[in-house]
Amino acid sequence: MKIFNSLEEIKDIEETVVALGNFDGVHRGHQQIIERTVKNAEAAGLKSAVFTFSNHTRTLLKNVPPVKNILYAEEKAEIIESLGIDYLFNIPFTREIMNMSPERFVQEILVDKFRIREAYCGFNYTFGHKAQGTPEVLMQEGRKHGFGIHIQEPFKIDGIVVSSTYIRELIKDGKLEECHRFMGRMYAIGGEVVVGNKLGRTIGFPTSNIMIDDTMVTPPNGVYITYCTYNGVRYPSVTNVGVKPTIGSYKKNVETHIFDFNKELYGKKIKVEFVKMTRPERKFDSVEELSKQIQNDCIAAKAYHREHCE
Question: What is the pTM of this model?
């Protein structure tokens, strides 16, 4: 997959079938749009593409709280590539683009840059100045410029419309099993392992610590059954998300104990996949009491992994 990070980079490419949208969660609804785009492009002998913005469209709006990301940029690109896409147009959302009329957006970006022949989008896709561009407007422009439009109706699971907004709420509520159903994969946090307070090592439960990225949506403080991937190998693990109230005042982080693992990971990159929450974080009366609870958490997590081993 070739990634274009600016409109200026896109020159004289082959004609395309383009999936349009934020794709901020690349959830199951998004996946269906992208898979249909790939299938259509292959059948027509065209290049398949995804057009998304590298920053959320709400970042330029005044008095609007920032939207927390579900995926890291690299992770988003990897998932899109795994679905068979040829081109990823990962373009910064600028004030110029924000203020484009829908007609200019279609002409200058979709037609002139992307050489679009077919477009796929969701039922709620909007574009252009003040989101005046709708799927209906896109259909009108498609007829004018000679490209086809395919609009996906709401994608539902058990009667619930799959959306990134809903998935963010599931993550914030600690409902990671539900999140898995809607995303089609486990919610994950990745990063470089940093030096912690090393308490876990002294009580027999060494951990690998990742700092929380403030731009990402994160689950509530608590203990989770997880998988930890390092160097391409996936290990059963148990993870605490929180501020370690028993031993002091710390910034929220992700602290993972990997079972049957004894390698030093400081400075290494890992990814922690969240299976389910087992209990909320709480303050214990002593380190000894905390140690006993951690032991119980590990026993429960190991039992779950044995029963649900993948």
Answer: 0.89
Tokens representing 261? Answer: 């693992």
Domain assignment of residue 56, given as a range? 2-160
Whether the Cβ atoms of residue 163 and residue 122 lie closer than 8 Å to each other: no
Which two three-digit tokens encode residue 150?
């395919």
- Under 8 Å CB-to-CB from 234, ≥6 apart: which residues? 227, 228, 273
Q: Alpha helices of the chain — where are they, by DSSP H?
A: 28-44, 73-82, 95-98, 102-105, 135-145, 164-172, 176-183, 199-202, 287-307
Domain CATH code at residue 110? 3.40.50.620
pLDDT tens figures, 185-233: 999 999 999 876 555 555 567 889 998 888 899 999 999 999 999 999 9
For the stretch 154-177, pLDDT in tens is 999 999 999 999 999 999 999 999
Does 116 share its domain with 238?
no
